Amino acid sequence: MKVTEHISKAKETLISFEILPPLKGKTIESIYNQLNPLMEFHPAFINVTYHRSEQMFKKRSDGTFEKVEVRKRPGTVGICAALMNRYKVDAVPHLICGGFSKQETENALIDLHFLGIDNVLILRGDAAKNETVFKPEEDGHLYALDLLKQVINLNHGIYLEDDIQDGHKTDFCIGVAGYPEKHFESPNLQSDLHYLQKKVAAGADYVTTQMFFDNRKYFEFVKQCRELNINVPIIPGLKPLTTKRQLSTLPRTFHVDIPAELSEAVMKCKSDAEVEKVGEEWLYQQSKELMENGAPVLHYYILGKHQVIANVMKKLL
Predict the structure, then answer these.
(1) Which of 67, 140, 175, 273 could be a cystine partner for 121, CB 3.0 to 4.6 Å?
(2) pLDDT average, residue stretch 112-127
(3) What does residue 204 show for φ and ψ, rounded to 5 degrees?
(4) Does the pLDDT value for residue 186 go beyond 70?
(5) What angle do CA 72, 77, 79 make, to 5 degrees?
(6) Model confidence at 129, in pLDDT bands (50, 70, 90)?
(7) For residue 65, is pLDDT > 80?
């Protein structure tokens, strides 16, 4: 079922989760171990992130080095199929520009369609670790909007090969990312909203936001979107804060603010176990307020903290 169908049929706020594929060499059991305690809360769908290859230098026997491509977290498509089979839940794979050609993207979309996957979340993705700015793959997409248009073309039966006539039309429900505190590369929020507006006008069906810790920023973001006639569902992304170190790593990595009240409470903690309790309560209060104000879905970034999220769910539902 499409994400938008889940939302339109729901009589109350839905729950969804997001997971990372395991590192290469690990098994899918690591994902099941995170999700098993959460499935009692009946998520409407589960997002699975996609990760680009990284360039690494491998030392040869003669002492010289060769550059090799390594994907540390493969398996997104297979994981989606496994989750659907095991839990009978809709899976939402991420699709990214970075590291993928248009042809590779089309083939991935065909695989997803054959598996009966109805949804995709479109992202540009981050720059490669050895690059300061994002660079597309050769014959790849530079912008998420262009990747979005490729999915829309396939929904219309338009394939990359010109000789494919009357191609089968896919029917993907397409999500895109939104940034209540703006994307870090945008000069301002208004510019960021302009590009989000273009994605929705091109055919995006819903928006999932970057994590935030201040609900006022989400509410203001939704308000500004509606003023620009961005009228698709806007799903808030949520993450528990669980260590003191995250007071610096989260703003640096994800370009989000930590409210003073939360950071002050965390700084008073004597251990990360205490921080986890503070973060759990903050996440619960965030979730409760968002639910009371009609958020369509509460989307939780699990990132190894399934027990914290389970505790919040037990109090919330």
Answers:
(1) 175
(2) 94
(3) -65, 140
(4) yes
(5) 80
(6) confident
(7) no
Q: How far apart are CA 120 and CA 148, in angstroms?
A: 10
Residue ranges per structural domain of the chain: 3-241+297-310
Confidence of residue 59 (pLDDT cuts 50, 70, 90): low
Our measurement of the distance from residue 193's CA atom to the centroid of its chain's CA atoms, rounded to an integer in Å, reads 18
Angle between helices 189-202 and 215-227 (to 10 degrees): 60
pLDDT-derived band of residue 116, with 50, 70 and 90 as boundaries? very high
Calculate the alpha carbon distances from 267 to 270, 275, 280, 308, 315 in Å. 8, 8, 15, 19, 25
Give the length of the chain. Answer: 317
Q: Would you say 120 and 93 are in contact if contact means Cβ atoms under 8 Å apart?
A: yes
Task: Find tokens 């929705």 and name the residue.
Answer: 200
Q: Which CA distances in Å does 88 have to 8, 34, 38, 42, 143?
A: 20, 16, 14, 10, 33
Q: What angle is formed at CA 58 by the lines to CA 52 and CA 60, rounded to 5 degrees?
A: 155
Q: What is the pTM assigned to this prediction?
A: 0.93
Look at strands 119-123 and 173-178 and give their pairing: parallel
